[in-house]
Design brief:
The complex is a heterodimer of chains A (256) and B (222).
Chain A lengths: L19 H20 L7 H4 L3 H23 L7 H27 L6 H4 L2 H6 L16 H13 L3 H10 L1 H4 L24 H10 L15 H14 L18
Helix pairs in contact in A: 1-3, 7-11, 8-11, 10-11
Chain B lengths: L39 H26 L10 H4 L2 H26 L3 H31 L8 H33 L7 H31 L2
Classes of the chains: A mainly alpha (256), B mainly alpha (222).
């Protein structure tokens, strides 16, 4: 190959100098970066290293991805140093795409940031998370009635904040913003009709295990038992609030 | 093999250092340049790739918007196989290198070398598509279909469109390579044609860099 290069093809008719070596060098660098990316998930097996640096892994992966993206566009596609028009044509829509991506998926992405983990962690993030793997077989047994009642009062004192937050990510999609229900998806939670029973224990089991013959997934697969209890309290607090636009009553009425 | 090419000036994209003196010298003889002194075909490809950024940006954004909102399994953690996907990802990344070498070779007026690298690139791309077909079949076996859940819909639409782009690229590169072999391409236009095909191919690779990191890897480090 042309060993002599680096005099920019000034003389018309001569081939431009070869970038072959630079390309191969970059190929090696990209390979190394990719190997590091692939090795990261296996670090999990070494909690002593994995846990303390946990907030760093996601930003690190994103940074490596951005590096690879930039390297391919800048060098392989030769956009770096190419004409401004090409750069403008590519980079401005790319910027729009990034903005759209951040706006559309911003909340979810924020779960990957080192801070503010709690806000956007979705149901199955918990399942996949290493913090506290739930037993796939199901939740803890329901509490005795008096303990449920006492815990309900405690949650009430806090305005059901925790249950409400869990409801927002695990239940809202089918049961509506205020528990009014959605046709074909989730029952109205704000009337006093309960297809599967209205006691704390019934509600807890319905949420944790699901009930045969309907669409509701067993939340024990994705929520911790304490989370299920908290959302039980919140759902119980919705009883009789009769949200506007509520779905029709299904199941026997349950007096308090 | 390159003797007949030696007298034809190869179109070259402007290097930073070239900006001072003249616009794309060497292009004029063989490639129609527009009033800005650049080949329209390359200008059009960059504009197209810009629009593709928004296209794939929306698909990946949509995937993330609905991430974790699937009501029915299987979920990503149930179906993703990091080993398989890593191999195919690596092959696609390497195909970007072989593509860059193909473009480099044609600028050195070595069509034979170019043809070999183009075939190699297409082969790597085809292998990637093969892996994706296998992956999709495997996912469907595990019960994940397009209509199963938000995960199924957003995942298949996003990766399916990417796989479609790779397939188009494989066909494109194969055709160019075959035509080079038959000597049916205008030698003067060849460098710009290979370069533009290369731009498309590299773009397909960078889309996968994003998808692989955001969709697959982030799933595994949680």
């Amino acid at each position: 190959m042309s060993a002599v290069h680096d005099t920019h093809a000034g003389a018309a008719g001569l081939p431009p100098h070869s970038h072959k070596k630079a390309y191969i060098r970059l190929g090696i660098v990209l390979t190394v970066v990719t190997l590091i990316e692939l090795a990261l998930p296996f670090l999990k097996d070494y909690p002593a290293v994995w846990e303390p640096c946990k907030p760093l892994w996601a930003p690190l992966l994103v940074a490596m991805s951005v590096f690879k993206f930039g390297a391919v566009v800048g060098e392989f596609m030769h956009l770096r140093g190419d004409r401004r028009v090409y750069q403008f044509l590519f980079i401005s829509p790319l910027a729009i795409a990034v903005i759209i991506f951040v706006l559309v998926s911003g909340l979810t992405v924020s779960a990957f940031l080192p801070f503010g983990q709690g806000v956007a962690l979705t149901a199955y993030d918990r399942k996949a998370g290493v913090a506290e793997p739930t037993k796939s077989s199901g939740a803890e047994a329901p509490l005795p009635d008096d303990k449920f009642k006492a815990a309900f009062d405690v949650a009430k004192g806090k305005g059901f904040a925790e249950g409400k937050e869990i409801y927002g990510r695990a239940c809202k999609a089918c049961h509506g913003d205020n528990g009014e229900g959605k046709a074909g998806l989730g029952f109205n939670l704000t009337d006093d009709c309960y297809q599967y029973g209205g006691s704390f224990k019934d509600l807890y089991l319905t949420i944790a295990e699901g009930r045969a013959g309907n669409k509701m997934p067993a939340q024990a697969a994705v929520l911790k038992s304490e989370e299920i209890r908290q959302v039980t309290y919140y759902v119980r607090s919705l009883k009789g609030t009769n949200a506007t636009g509520g779905q029709p009553c299904v199941g026997p009425k349950v007096a308090d | 093999m390159s003797a007949d090419l030696a007298v034809v000036p190869a179109p070259d994209h402007a290097h930073a250092a070239d900006h001072g003196h003249g616009d794309g010298h060497g292009d004029h003889a063989v490639v129609e340049n527009n009033f800005m002194g650049m080949p329209n075909i390359k200008l059009a490809m960059w504009a197209f790739l810009g629009s593709e950024c928004m296209f794939f940006g929306s698909l990946v954004g949509t995937y993330f918007f609905y991430r974790g909102k699937a009501l029915a399994g299987p979920l990503p953690g149930d179906v993703f196989d990091l080993t398989i996907t890593s191999i195919s990802t690596f092959l696609l990344l390497m195909s970007s290198l072989t593509m860059a070498l193909a473009v480099d070779a044609i600028k050195q007026r070595k069509p034979d070398t170019t043809r070999k690298f183009l075939f190699l690139t297409a082969l790597l791309g085809a292998t990637f598509v093969g892996f994706q077909v296998y992956e999709f079949a495997h996912f469907v076996d595990k019960g994940l279909k397009l209509s199963t859940s938000l995960f199924g819909s957003t995942f298949y639409v996003m990766t399916g469109f990417h796989g479609g782009h790779v397939t188009v690229g494989v066909i494109w590169l194969t055709i160019v390579a075959v035509l080079i072999g038959k000597g049916k391409l205008n030698t003067g236009r060849l460098p710009i044609n290979v370069e533009v095909a290369g731009l498309y191919w590299h773009f397909v690779d960078i889309v996968w860099i994003v998808i692989f990191t955001f969709v697959y890897l982030l799933e595994f480090i949680r």
